[in-house]
Amino acid sequence: MTNVFQPDFRPSGARTAPPASTAPEASVTKADTQDYFTEVADDYRAWSPSYNMHFGFWRLGLNPLRREGMLVEMNRAVGRALRLDQPRPAHESTQRRCVVDLGCGAGATARTLVGDHPSLFAVTVTNVAVQNRIAVRLDAGAGVADRVAHIEADYTRTGLPTAQADGAWAVESACYASGTAKADFVREAARLLKPGARLAVIDGFLLREKPGRSAGWLHRLWADSWAVPTLAVRDDFVAALRDNGFEDIEVRSLRWRVAPSALHIPVLATRFALAELWKARGRLSPWRRKHIVASYCALVLGLFWRDFDYCMVTARRSD
């Protein structure tokens, strides 16, 4: 792949990592998450041929029956949150902008944004090798292979240089960091961003540390099935942003924006499960079975309004 980045934006050769967290290990480990995404990589094609591995963003003018259009619109919502459309000072107008996707899946958001913004270049970070292989193939088909680079790394210690990113985002991936504040994720995002650059996080959030009994049980079933240690607690996450030098923090509920795409789950998941069980003669691997279970859980979890919300959190790195 052609390298399109400034030399100081490449992953450092030494890849020196900070010490591992001393927090108690969650019941779901990073190895579990890698195994899950490796095993179900092809299954995500049923949700989106372009590998948009997230819910969609509905707005007036979009057909709620066409899922792919809403999924792409969620990518563009990230671009708007990063304010990529805003005019830049004349002395910066010809400069390349570099952005980072922390937990990219197969790079769908990066493909959309670099396709929409000719001056943009993206680095995506995932610790799942098969996702990068899928991403490289899709980049070539989209004609953006020379403006996206995919690295295999832990997004809480990427090895990328400090204060070089013009923006960063995590779409349904911050939840895979440890703890209810996702402090390791926030700390690395703060390190990567230039002063004044913006972070956008779109994900499910717990609204209180101890959900009600039914919501707590459902959250644990969902989390274990999608290899998530725990969802962030919204207030803990916001506090972690403040503690790591972020300002202008805004939390926006997207509950109604994602509802039309979430309503695609019952028919799609049932059709997918029956087809795959038929092909496999009734024998699906444990992670593939859990993937189907989690799909249903995600829809039901959204009904517990006191305990759960789906939000976009944006913040600006302090100058």
From TrEMBL:
TM annotation in the entry: none
Full protein name: Methyltransferase domain-containing protein
Lineage: Bacteria, Pseudomonadati, Pseudomonadota, Betaproteobacteria, Burkholderiales
GO molecular function terms listed in the Swiss-Prot or TrEMBL record: methyltransferase activity
Pfam families: Methyltransf_11 (PF08241)
InterPro entries tied to this protein: Erg6_SMT_methyltransf (IPR050447), Methyltransf_11 (IPR013216), SAM-dependent_MTases_sf (IPR029063)
GO biological process, one term: methylation
SUPFAM superfamilies recorded: S-adenosyl-L-methionine-dependent methyltransferases (SSF53335)
Hydrolase keyword on record: no
Gene3D superfamilies noted in UniProt: Vaccinia Virus protein VP39
Domain Methyltransferase type: 100-200
Entry keyword annotation includes Transferase: yes
Renumbered residue ranges of the record's region Disordered: 1-29
Species of provenance: Variovorax beijingensis
Key words, A-Z: Methyltransferase, Transferase
PANTHER family hit by this protein: GERANYL DIPHOSPHATE 2-C-METHYLTRANSFERASE, ZGC:194242
Compositionally biased tracts (Low complexity): 10-24
